[in-house]
């Protein structure tokens, strides 16, 4: 897949696809490369880009509120998950986290309870080019915990209401030193995840609220944007002994 960019417009297309807009029509060449400029039949130019993580985030089909890049960055930074490692995930949703991890070279097994959402996530993994690394399974992870025990995952990432129940099984799912990362939009779910981590004997239990503020710069001065507080959710991290 490639991105066709004209000003603030972006279109995700594959080689051989056609693009029809009010700026004209063009066919994407089979040998298209990033950095090229393609013209429509009326002479409008589109820059060709290789899609990056944020581009995929913007063009994925959504099945709800996806995890934001700011949260994904904290998960990667705090767990240190890297190419060649294995992550067990639950609450796939749109699949943004799984796609980011797959593009890092991580092998992901992710569970989504809603069959339609799981189908959308599989298509999103195809668009991201990580369908060989991300195994999207339909079902509730709690029904598979016995089969997943002793699998030796490097990290466990959860964005589900039943995350605390899964956290209690973390010692059976993770390698020694492996990490748990739980995302929750609500304080109540966050507290329950912390208590479950402590009950399971996990160490280094930490909780963070993710807040990001955009800066505004204009002729009058510089200050944080007044458009919202920038809160997305809470992240709980813990480590298997």
From TrEMBL:
Keywords: Methyltransferase, S-adenosyl-L-methionine, Transferase, tRNA processing. GO terms for molecular function: rRNA (adenine-N6,N6-)-dimethyltransferase activity; tRNA (adenine(57)-N1)/(adenine(58)-N1)-methyltransferase activity; tRNA (adenine(58)-N1)-methyltransferase activity. The keyword tRNA processing applies. GO terms for cellular component: tRNA (m1A) methyltransferase complex. Residues 70-217 form the tRNA (adenine(58)-N(1))-methyltransferase catalytic subunit TRM61 C-terminal domain. Its EC number is 2.1.1.219. CDD domains: AdoMet_MTases (cd02440). The keyword Protein transport does not apply. It holds the Pfam family GCD14. One of its GO terms (biological process) is tRNA methylation. InterPro entries: rRNA_Ade_Mease_Trfase_CS, SAM-dependent_MTases_sf, TRM61_C, tRNA_MeTrfase_Gcd14. This is tRNA (Adenine-N(1))-methyltransferase TrmI. The lineage of its organism: Archaea, Methanobacteriati, Methanobacteriota, Stenosarchaea group, Halobacteria.
């Amino acid at each position: 897949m490639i991105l066709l960019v004209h000003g603030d417009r972006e279109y995700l297309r594959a080689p051989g696809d056609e693009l029809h807009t009010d700026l004209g029509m063009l066919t994407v060449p089979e040998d298209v490369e990033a950095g090229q400029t393609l013209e429509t039949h009326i002479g409008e130019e589109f820059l060709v880009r290789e899609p990056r993580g944020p581009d995929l985030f913007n063009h994925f089909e959504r099945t709800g509120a996806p995890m934001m890049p700011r949260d994904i960055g904290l998960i990667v930074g705090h767990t240190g998950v890297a190419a060649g490692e294995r992550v067990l995930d639950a609450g796939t949703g749109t699949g943004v986290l799984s796609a980011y991890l797959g593009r890092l070279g991580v092998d992901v097994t992710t569970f989504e309870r809603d069959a339609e959402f799981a189908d959308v996530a599989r298509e999103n993994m195809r668009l991201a080019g990580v369908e060989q690394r991300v195994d999207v399974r339909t079902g509730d992870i709690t029904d598979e915990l016995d089969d997943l025990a002793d699998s030796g995952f490097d990290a466990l990432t959860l964005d589900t209401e039943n995350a605390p129940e899964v956290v209690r099984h973390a010692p059976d799912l993770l390698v020694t030193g492996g990490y748990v990362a739980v995302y929750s939009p609500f304080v109540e779910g966050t507290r329950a995840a912390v208590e479950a981590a402590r009950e399971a004997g996990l160490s280094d239990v930490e909780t963070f609220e993710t807040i990001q503020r955009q800066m505004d710069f204009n002729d009058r001065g510089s200050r944080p944007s007044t458009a919202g507080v920038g809160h997305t959710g809470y992240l709980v991290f813990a480590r298997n002994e």
